[in-house]
Specification:
Radius of gyration: 25 Å
Shape: globular
Distance between the termini: 29 Å
Number of helices: 5
Largest sheet: 12 strands, parallel
Oligomer: single chain
Order of helices and strands: EEEEEEEEEEHEEHEHEEHEH
Helix content: 10-25%
Length: 336
């Protein structure tokens, strides 16, 4: 640590204010007005859901606008937050269904039980929780602590404003570490967490809002084909030993091209394993798996993305090395 000092000049004249005091009609000086005096007053209750039971509640698009939210002491509730926020804490909730739109910072569940949720965030943590189902999009490694019966799946959700909310929260739809869970308090011989079955339905865990609720105007879908976040297999066992690395370099249509590639390859019965967007020239990266996937990707690159800057593994003998080298580098860049 360093310090910087300066000696005051002996010739320096005392500073005088150039501001002219305001006065009212009686000649008395009016009180000073500061910037915080003109700010819109915030009611903390607008950013809290507390002590609720057997109700459907939440926030509509445009009502949070990046503020934090506190959810606590709720029982048997359906909670929908269709907006982006700064941070969200969920405390002492039981038997609730929760959807949380993109969160710029952390989502922290504490002392919750029998909660099923769909969450998109920068950081996901739980402490002292039991029996949770989490369909997750998380930019960093999810962390559980003193929690049991935790099950994780990939985020699958859509509503019209969701893509804009991801952008407002500073989250990439391609950086999802949902299956890379770290157990801070492992127990020898026991598994505190597991992955949901690939057939697990988000709608079964968190049903859409009731048509008679305040959220009936929000058009939602939990179908994988409409999800803003690509559905990835993550850490589940692969069906084939052949994988392929497909890299899109930065360009005007990078995201659209990446989504088109995913749709085309899934239609050919290949499986998307993992995606990354990192601060290097390849902006979006797709890892695909299946017998014949290298040839299929090369054909796709030539026929569909002929005018785009791409990299595709040359052959199946070197493709695994390509995949490992890139994703190891990406993980180091992201601090995982």
């Amino acid at each position: 640590m360093g310090c910087f000092f300066s000696k005051k000049s002996a010739k320096e004249e005392p500073r005088t204010s150039t501001a002219t005091p305001a006065a009212d009609s009686s000649g008395e000086e009016a009180p000073k007005q500061y910037s915080w005096d003109t700010r819109e007053k915030v009611d903390p209750k607008d950013y809290m859901l507390s002590g609720l039971k057997d109700v459907t509640v939440g926030r509509l698009p445009g009502t949070l606008n990046g503020q934090q939210l506190i959810i606590q002491d709720c029982e048997n509730c359906n909670i929908f937050v269709f907006d982006h926020s700064a941070t969200i804490t969920v405390d002492d909730c039981v038997n609730c269904r929760v959807f949380l739109g993109p969160v710029k910072g952390s989502v922290f569940f504490r002392d919750c039980k029998d909660v099923r949720c769909v969450v998109a965030c920068q950081q996901f943590r739980t402490r002292d929780c039991k029996k949770m189902e989490v369909h997750l999009c998380c930019a960093t490694q999810p962390i559980i602590e003193s929690s049991t019966g935790m099950r994780f799946g990939c985020f699958q959700y859509y509503y019209p404003e969701l893509a804009f909310h991801f952008k407002d929260a500073g989250l990439s739809i391609f950086n999802n570490n949902w299956s890379n869970v770290h157990d801070f308090t492992p127990v020898s011989g026991e598994n505190n967490w597991s992955l949901l079955a690939e057939t697990a339905s988000v709608s079964d865990s968190v049903p859409p809002p009731d048509p008679e609720s305040d959220f009936k105007a929000v058009r939602v879908s939990a179908e994988a084909s409409r999800s803003i976040v690509p559905l990835t297999r993550g850490a589940r066992r692969k069906d084939s030993d052949e994988s392929c690395l497909f890299v899109f370099f930065a360009g005007d249509y990078t995201t659209a091209n990446a989504r088109k590639l995913i749709d085309e390859m899934i239609a050919k019965d290949f499986v998307l394993i993992q995606t990354k967007e990192v601060s290097m020239r390849p902006e979006d990266v797709k890892r695909l798996n299946g017998d014949g996937v290298v040839d299929a990707c090369k054909t796709m690159a030539n026929e569909v993305f002929n005018g785009s800057k791409v990299f595709v593994s040359d052959n199946k003998n070197t493709s695994l090395r390509d995949v490992d080298n890139f994703f190891n580098f990406a993980d180091m860049q992201m601090g995982l």
